[in-house]
Structures are given as C-alpha cells and as structure tokens.
C-alpha cells in the first residue's frame, strides 16, 4: 500500500483579515467553500483557516506542495454529518484522482490544524 501523510498548522488571527478580502478569498477558495464559511458566521475565520491548512497538508502528503494556481482545485467540503472531505478538480484530479484521501481538521481559539492521509492500493494488493 502506498501511504503518505501531510500536516499543517496556521494561526486563525491571519484569516480574520483574509475573510474580509474578497479577492484573496476567490484566489484561495472555491465558491462552495466560500458559501460554507459565510454560513458559519462568527466561525468563518476558523473554518477558512482549517480549510487552508488542509490544502497545505494535501500538498505535503502528495509531495508537490500547492500553488495559487491550484488552490481552488482542492476543495475542503463537509458531508451531511459535518465530516470534512477533499474533492479534487482540474489538473489535480488528473494527477491525484486515483488516491483515496482522508482529512482531519481541528482548532483552538488561536490555531487550526489539518492532517491529510493519501493512500492507494498497489496493483498486487488490488488483485489479491
């Protein structure tokens, strides 16, 4: 089995300014992500910070890092029960679409953290 992990931590205070900057939000987050943050009200900065951490953690897990050009191709979304998941789009989906991704988000008053596991079965494991 191919398995990698990435982790990132950021200061929430930084994102209190970012969420007020519409241009920056469009560069970093998809329309669906921005709608989620808006619905969070007072928790918008914490949610945006955690989502950004997850994008950074994804880049670390796959070993490519992230760039401004691909930030919106990594979406951090939430299921009906609130559990976060990663959806890849565009070029990143072409490159990493075969991976199974798992994400965990957490935060305190001051910091948000995310961990991403990226894994796939080897051909031998899939045939077994």
What features would you describe in this structure?
The chain has helices at 12-18, 22-28, 31-39, 44-62, 90-96, 123-127, and strands at 2-11, 74-78, 84-88, 100-107, 111-120. The chain has 128 residues and is of the alpha+beta class. The strands form 2 sheets. It has a 3-stranded antiparallel beta sheet with strand order 1-5-4. It has a two-stranded antiparallel sheet with strand order 2-3. Strand 4 (100-107) and strand 5 (111-120) form a beta hairpin. The mean pLDDT is 92.
Keywords:
6 helices; two-stranded antiparallel ribbon; alpha+beta; 128 residues
Q: What structural class results from the helix and strand content?
A: alpha+beta
Please tell me the overall pLDDT. Answer: 92
Query: Gap between N and C termini, in Å?
Result: 12 Å
Q: Report strand %.
A: 25-35%
The largest β sheet comes out as: 3 strands, antiparallel
Tally of strands: 5
Query: Considering DSSP H and I runs of 4 or more, what fraction of the residues is helical?
Result: 40-55%
Q: Which consecutive residue ranges, at least 5 long each, have pLDDT under 50? A: none
Order of strands, main sheet, comes to 1-5-4
In N-to-C order, the SSE pattern is EHHHHEEHEEH
Shape: globular
Radius of gyration over alpha carbons?
15 Å
Number of DSSP helices? 6
């Amino acid at each position: 089995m191919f398995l990698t992990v990435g982790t990132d931590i950021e200061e929430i205070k930084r994102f209190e300014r970012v969420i007020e900057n519409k241009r920056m939000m469009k560069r970093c987050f998809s329309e669906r992500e921005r709608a989620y943050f808006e619905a969070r009200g007072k928790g918008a900065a914490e949610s945006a910070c955690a989502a950004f951490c997850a994008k950074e953690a994804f880049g670390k897990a796959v070993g490519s890092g992230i760039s401004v050009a691909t930030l919106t191709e990594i979406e951090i979304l939430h299921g009906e029960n609130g559990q976060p998941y990663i959806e890849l789009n565009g070029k990143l989906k072409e490159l990493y679409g075969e991976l199974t991704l798992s994400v965990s988000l957490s935060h305190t008053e001051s910091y948000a953290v995310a961990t991403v596991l990226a894994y796939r079965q080897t051909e031998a494991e899939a045939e077994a």
